[in-house]
Amino acid sequence: MPAMPTKKAREADPVVTSRCRAPRTGAEDRRRQLLDTAEALLATGGSDALRMDHVARAAGVTRPVVYGHFTNRDGLVVALLERHSQRLSEHEALATVGATSFDEYLRNATRAYLSAAFVHGPALRALVAGEHLSPAIESARSRIWGKAASTWAKRYRTHYDLSATDANALAVSHLAALSALAGSCIDGRLEPGRAVDLHVTSTLAALDAISGRARTLG
């Protein structure tokens, strides 16, 4: 009978080593995996399914691994909200390249938002609608919402004669309306193309009306 290989020999054998040691996942990839897992749990099980131990089990890791990336459940939820916001921004940036007018920019950006929301939104929508949000989560959501509104308000003022106050108020109103339209699309109550037309038409009409009124009063 052949002698068993020594520990040193086993460690030197690439075949044995690859069999005994699972490749480690980098921190960035692991974080992405955990967020993907959390999002999938939300989509299938709702808010109640989003627990740190459930995420660990579904991802095939231990709870300390999850806590190593997210301090607690609130931290995990905030990370999901931030990633969703980043996705929306990236979709919008890609969709609006080459737009030659504000009307075209708005239409392309609206279409991109609804597309991203249709794919990734149900999970986040289930979370926000399914529980009383903690101060940490509500603060993060308000910060993300405020940043988006500020960005759109600046775009409005680039093309229309609006005060900063009016532009920001319109941006907040339009984002709320767009979010509601996305919900209707997700629920199957409204066709995405129709939602785009409704949002673009109402937004441009409001901008024209408020801008014209400002010029008249001025």
Query: What is the CATH domain class of the largest domain?
Result: Mainly Alpha
N-to-C CA distance: 99 Å
Radius of gyration: 24 Å
SSE-based structural type: mainly alpha
From the 3D structure, determine the CATH topology of the largest domain: Tetracycline Repressor, domain 2
Q: Please, how many helices?
A: 10
Explain what this protein looks like in three dimensions.
By secondary structure, the protein is mainly α. It has two domains: 22-70, Arc Repressor Mutant, subunit A; 74-217, Tetracycline Repressor, domain 2 (Orthogonal Bundle), CATH 1.10.357. The protein has ten helices and no strands. Helix 3 (27-45) crosses helix 4 and helix 3 (27-45) packs across helix 7. Residues 9-23 and 214-218 have low confidence and may be disordered.
